[in-house]
């Protein structure tokens, strides 16, 4: 079994089940043209996020790590007309590309891109007394994942869904001896959740056009 096969199956599934969306494709093209790293979620992962948001009946979504707004558009399309998505991005060039992509998708009235480090933006959101988010997608710098998880828990309600991207890292999750701060981040999250009664969580390993990785899903308990 190889990455080429995972990619071929991903392409097959995408061609059959995922309708072409000009604004999502334009967002990827514009992101690439602007030199952004090609690390957005895959189409099948984007659709999964959208299905989860629909299933959750999400009306308020928080995203940490916007990049070019590709996952943002997938998620925002799950919202009702009066829904809201706040997405946090530290890199001004990324935020600018994302804002243009989001506007082209006709979602600028739904999505707010907040420029700045997520730690600061989360503090600010909390200080504003923002209403709880129904769904959170954590996909920024990996060493800060435990801090982001804790902060977003404070902005959620029982039943809120928190999704964390890139938690398996080609199995690096198992490497207790690693000096990678990214892997420390995802290992620490799992260790913390092992004894955290506030959420019920699992991690799904994934393969596909983005290689071997995984997402953690956590639902906030009553
Ligand atoms: N969710 C996007 C991919 C995000 S890539 C998608 O799937 O389409 C990670 C993004 O997080 C990058 O754009 C990076 O600039 C941003 N980022 C990194 N560190 C950050 C921080 N401390 N605060 C906010 N954003 C950060
Ligand atoms: C990286 C970050 C991501 O959010 C992702 O989905 C894949 C890779 C990275 O920083 O390498
Ligand atoms: Mg990611």
Note the overall shape: globular
Low-confidence blocks of residues:
none
Helix content: 40-55%
Look at the structure and give the mean pLDDT: 98
Lateral arrangement of strands in the main beta sheet: 3-2-1-4-5-7-6
Succession of helices and strands? HHHEHEHEHEHEHEE
Q: How is the biggest beta sheet arranged?
A: 7 strands, mixed
User: What small-molecule ligands were found?
Assistant: S-adenosyl-L-homocysteine, 3,4-dihydroxybenzoic acid, magnesium ion
> Mind telling me the C-alpha Rg?
17 Å
- The number of helical runs is 8
Helix/strand-derived category reads alpha/beta
Number of E-state strands? 7
Cα-to-Cα separation, first versus last residue = 42 Å
**Strand percentage, roughly?**
15-25%
Description:
The chain is α/β, with parallel strands linked by helices and 222 residues long. It contains 8 helices and 7 strands; from the N terminus they run αααβαβαβαβαβαββ. A 7-stranded mixed sheet has the order 3-2-1-4-5-7-6, with helices on both faces. Helix 3 (43-55) runs parallel beside helix 4 (70-76). The longest helix has 15 residues, at 3-17. The model has no long low-confidence stretch (mean pLDDT 98). 3,4-dihydroxybenzoic acid (DHB) is lined by residues 39, 139, 165-166.
Helices and strands in order, then pairings?
Elements (H helix, E strand, L loop, with lengths): L2 H15 L4 H12 L9 H13 L4 E5 L5 H7 L7 E6 L2 H13 L6 E5 L2 H10 L5 E6 L6 H9 L2 E10 L15 H14 L4 E10 L2 E10 L2
Parallel strand pairs: 1-2, 1-4, 2-3, 4-5
Antiparallel strand pairs: 5-7, 6-7
Helix pairs in contact: 2-5, 3-4, 6-7
The structure holds S-adenosyl-L-homocysteine (SAH), 3,4-dihydroxybenzoic acid (DHB) and magnesium ion.
């Amino acid at each position: 079994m190889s990455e080429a096969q995972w990619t071929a199956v991903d392409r097959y599934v995408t061609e059959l089940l995922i309708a072409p969306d000009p604004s999502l494709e334009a967002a990827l093209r514009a992101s690439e043209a602007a030199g952004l790293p090609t690390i957005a979620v895959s189409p099948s992962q984007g659709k999964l996020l959208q299905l989860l948001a629909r299933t959750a009946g999400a009306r308020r979504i928080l995203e940490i790590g916007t990049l070019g707004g590709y996952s943002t558009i997938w998620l925002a399309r799950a919202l009702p007309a009066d829904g809201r998505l706040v997405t946090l991005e530290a890199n001004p060039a990324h935020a600018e590309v994302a804002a243009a992509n989001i506007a082209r998708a006709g979602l600028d009235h739904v999505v707010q891109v907040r420029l700045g480090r997520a730690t600061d933006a989360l503090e600010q959101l909390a200080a504003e007394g923002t209403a709880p988010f129904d769904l959170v997608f954590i996909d920024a710098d990996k060493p800060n994942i435990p801090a982001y998880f804790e902060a977003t828990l404070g902005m959620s309600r029982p039943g809120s869904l928190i999704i964390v991207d890139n938690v398996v890292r080609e199995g690096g999750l198992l490497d207790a001896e690693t000096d990678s701060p990214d892997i420390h981040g995802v290992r620490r999250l799992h260790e913390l959740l092992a004894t955290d009664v506030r959420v019920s969580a699992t991690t799904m390993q994934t393969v596909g056009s983005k290689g071997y990785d995984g997402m953690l899903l956590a639902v906030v308990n009553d």
